[in-house]
Design brief:
alpha/beta, seven-stranded mixed sheet, single chain, 9 helices, Rossmann fold, 23% helix
Amino acid sequence: MKRDKLFCIGKGKGSTLSMPIASEGNVSLVNQSSIVQTIGDTTIQPGTSITVPTDVGMAMLRRPEFKVEKPSINWEPGDKLQVSRFAGLGDLIFLVAACHGFHMYHPDVRIYVDAHPDHHEWLSWVPFINVGKCNDPKFVVGTTSPSLVHTDRVNHIAEQIGIEHHDIRFPIDIPNTDACWLEDPILFAPYSAGAGARSLLASTVTQILERAPEIDRNRFVFVPHNSHRGSTGALRYSTGPLTIGELWELVSVSTGVITVDTGVAWMAAALGKPVLVFYTHSRPQETANACSDIMAVEPVVPCAPCGLRDGDYPCEAGNHGFQCQSYYDWRVVMLRMAEFIKLVQGGPS
C-alpha cells in the first residue's frame, strides 16, 4: 500500500535531513521550465525528468537551482533599495526573508517594500523595512516567483537583489503578544487563503474536529477560513475572522502550527515555530528548504505534484475535491498530527 511522503527538516534530525517514506527509495526531479536546468554537474532538459536515489536527490534540492542574473551594484551607506511585490502573504514573507539577507550584507542601505495595503501594518513591524515607495532608489526590482517547482523560493528572490540567502527567519516586532489565553497553543489552520486546491477538504476538517479529543482539544485553536460553514466539533477553541496582524500575533504565541501550503505556514516558519504542512499540487522543496523546523507531507497520487496554479489543474474537482486533496482523509491527517505533537513536545519521533 502506498504511503504519503514525509519530509523532515530540523528538530533534531540534522540540518539537511529530508526523508521520504516511500517504497521505491528514489525521487524524480522534473524540469517544468522552458530552459535547461543545471544542478551541480547534472543537467535536466526542458520537459524531462531524472530519477536519483532519495539521499542524492534531496541533497541536490538543497542547492539553488533556478539561476538568475545577480545585479552587480556597489552599495554605499545611505543608498536605497526599492522592492515591489503585489502578491499574497506567503510571497511577501519570502520576500522579506530575502531582504533580511540583503540587510545583513548591507546594513547601511535602506530597504523599501511596496506591497498591497493589506500588508502595510505587519511590514511596518519589521525593523529593517520601510513601507512604500522611496525617492531616488539606487536599484529597483519587482521580484518574481520561480518557474521551477523545486526552487528554493527565498534564495530565488535573494538572487534578484544580488545576494544568496536560504533562511526564511527574520526579526519582527509584533506589538501584542497576549493574543491567546491558552498556554502553549497549537494552531490548526487547514484552509489556504482562497480555500482552493491547497486546502484540506471541508469534510476532512469536520471529521478531524469531531475527533479532537483523540489528540488534545484543550491545546488546539482552530483557525477557520471565512467559507467554513461546519461546526468546530469537539474542539474547544476557535477564532473568528482575523486580520493579518492578528494572525501574526496568534502565531507568535503558539507552540506549533498545523496547516497547508499557505501564508500561516510561512508566518510560523519566519518566527522559527515548528510547522506541519500538508501539500497538495506543489512540492515542499519550493518553499520548505528555507525553513529550520518543518514537517512537510506530500500526497501519493499519480498526478501530484502537477505544480500548476490559478485553477489550471489537470484533474476534476467534483464532489470529492482534487485527487491530491481527497488523498488526505482524516486518518492520514490525524496520524501526522499526532507525530507532529510528539516532536513539538520533545518526545520520540
